[in-house]
Design goal:
This protein is mainly α and 244 residues long. 54% of the residues lie in helices and 0% in strands. The protein has helices at 3-19, 21-30, 37-47, 57-73, 79-89, 99-107, 116-123, 143-146, 163-166, 173-184, 216-243. Helix 3 (37-47) packs antiparallel against helix 4 (57-73). The longest helix has 28 residues, at 216-243. The radius of gyration is 47 Å and the shape is elongated. The N and C termini lie far apart (141 Å). 10% of the residues are buried.
Length: 244
């Protein structure tokens, strides 16, 4: 609905409500409460913070509906007159939470006595079968184990994967482009070409200028030769002196 049409409809409701209060009450009940996410979040937070002993959750929700309706439609709903109109017509107050919201509350492992959405659902006059049915409780399973997250602890190797698990994961678009460049021989953008050549630098030599050190056995041989020469020299000198 376009904005001018919505404004015109609100203005028409305001004009008719001033003449007949039941028009305001019908508009109050037909307001899309479940689609008003801001109201639903605010109501959920309030239901889980209010003390249920002080007032019923239905009264809390009614007052929040009155405030939200006045904020959005600019029509003030008389609380007592609205209750009398409900009693005379036999109408139920509108449902405020969808089945999905009630299912999420159950899936959150909230104890039944603390499920504020379900309690409000019942206080508004809707039977429990409108909410999600709870699975039967196995008394042989401890409460802590029932509250634990459900997950497969063992998966056999020959288990058939689900379609979602077995489906091939698509490759990124960039990867597909690179494969296409390689198959067609085209140049890949952004890749620097390096020539397959070796440049000989005359200033660099593979031969060293320093003398290689002696090996251990070469050092031992040199020491032995030096010792032998030093022992021969005194003998030769002694022989020469005797002959003279």
């Amino acid at each position: 609905m376009a904005a001018p049409e919505a404004s015109q409809r609100v203005a028409d409701i305001q004009r008719r409500a001033a003449e007949k209060p039941e028009v305001a009450f019908k508009a109050f009940d037909t307001y899309p409460w479940q689609a008003d996410q801001l109201f639903i979040r605010s109501l959920t937070n309030t239901l889980y913070t209010v003390e249920p002993q002080s007032t019923t959750l239905a009264e809390v929700a009614l007052q929040m509906r009155i405030d939200r309706f006045e904020e959005r439609v600019k029509i003030k709903i008389d609380r007592d007159a609205y209750k009398q109109w409900l009693s005379s017509t036999g109408n139920l107050k509108p449902r405020l939470f969808s089945n999905q919201s009630l299912e999420q509350e159950v899936a959150g492992n909230v104890p039944p006595e603390q499920r504020r959405l379900a309690i409000l659902h019942a206080e508004l006059g809707y039977p429990p079968n409108h909410a999600i049915a709870e699975p039967p409780v196995d008394a042989s399973i401890p409460s802590w184990q029932r509250a634990a997250p459900k997950a497969e602890l063992f998966v056999p190797k020959n288990a058939t994967p689900s379609p979602a698990e077995g489906a091939a994961v698509p490759y990124p678009k960039k990867f597909e482009e690179i494969v296409r460049f390689l198959e067609t021989g085209e140049e890949i953008p952004g890749i620097r070409q390096i020539p397959d050549t070796v440049i000989d630098d005359p200033s660099i030599s593979t031969r060293g200028t320093r003398e290689a050190p002696l090996k251990p056995w070469e050092r031992n041989s040199a020491n032995a030769e030096t010792t032998e020469r030093s022992s021969i020299a005194p003998s030769a000198a002694s022989t020469v002196s005797q002959s003279v």
